[in-house]
Amino acid sequence: MMSFDPHISRRHFGLGALSILGTSFPLSPHRAHAANLPSITLRVASFRGMDSTIIPAAGLADFPYNVEFSEFNSGNLIAQAINANAVDMGGWSEIPLVFIAASGARVKIVATIDGPTTNQAVVVPANSPARSFADLKGRKVGYIRSTTAHYFLIRMLQKVGLTFADITPVPLGMSQGLTALKSGSLDAWATYGYVIPLLMADGFGRILESAENILSGHYFIGANPLQLPDPNFRAAAADYINRLGKAYTLLTQNKTRWAKAISPIIQIPEPIVLSDLDAQNRPYRIRPWNDGDIQSAQIVADTFIEQRLIPSRPDLKSVFSNELTALLTG
């Protein structure tokens, strides 16, 4: 079961006063009543190269409230941070959602992001003898606990009649997993993100199996329930989510601009980033959550129940909140 550690290290990016990028994105009229927005500080969790990069890149960082970004490399850590009241907002996939519900964590889902499932895969060293997933039997396989990587590794094993007992599973963070694979300490690594095309471009790794058709492509934006009763916070949070959605729309229309913005941040050559963006199987789109999102997440929950990673069916619906639904434009 997912544990929630209140001691979360964070890297801050103050963008509350940033208004030099030129594109205005004012609050809609039904949110204008929130007159004390300058008093609000949104503590937002961001993956490297995501929110804290793409909102300014789209010219949408002229917030009428303060935004303090913190950098994380997995959704489960973001969920931990919200539970610990260390941040107010952040995103993750269905997998942390299941552990949130199972643990009774203090987190609420306020919106859904439909997004790509590309760049989620099991990677092996370039010279690995493994040619099919069944070849990993008895091998040392790294994965990132309580994330999409954890889930799709289970599903891939099931497809070839194997379980975690048939491999040596090694839970590792992103940087530790990368180091272990490149040093030869792992036979395979279940991972996600730009590290995959980078490994391939550098000649260190190749994709053994993609999770593109395993994952649903449903991601969620969570909020701190301690803050949601405040109407000013709700107005600011909804405005932020709407800006993020608009940023995705604008940059999807100009992926060259998108790649140019994030390449120096994630330290991956721009052509590799652009190729990866072009290969996405669907665009990012933010919308209010619906019952179908809960039903999709239940499939994930049932998989973890079968693996005895959670004891019983969690009440997934209890994690979802309609506090921001009427304020979202997606």
From TrEMBL:
According to the record, the signal peptide region is none
CDD domains in the record: PBP2_SsuA_like_2 (cd13558)
Name listed for the protein in its UniProt record: Transporter substrate-binding domain-containing protein
Classify the source by domain of life.
Bacteria
Q: Which Gene3D superfamilies match?
A: Periplasmic binding protein-like II
Q: Which family does it belong to?
A: Belongs to the bacterial solute-binding protein SsuA/TauA family.
Pfam families assigned to the protein according to its UniProt record, in alphabetical order: NMT1
In this chain the Solute-binding protein family 3/N-terminal domain maps to 41-262
What SUPFAM superfamilies does this protein's entry cite? Periplasmic binding protein-like II
Q: Which PANTHER family match?
A: ABC TRANSPORTER SUBSTRATE-BINDING PROTEIN, ALIPHATIC SULFONATES-BINDING PROTEIN-RELATED
Taking the record's annotation, the residue ranges forming a coiled coil are: none
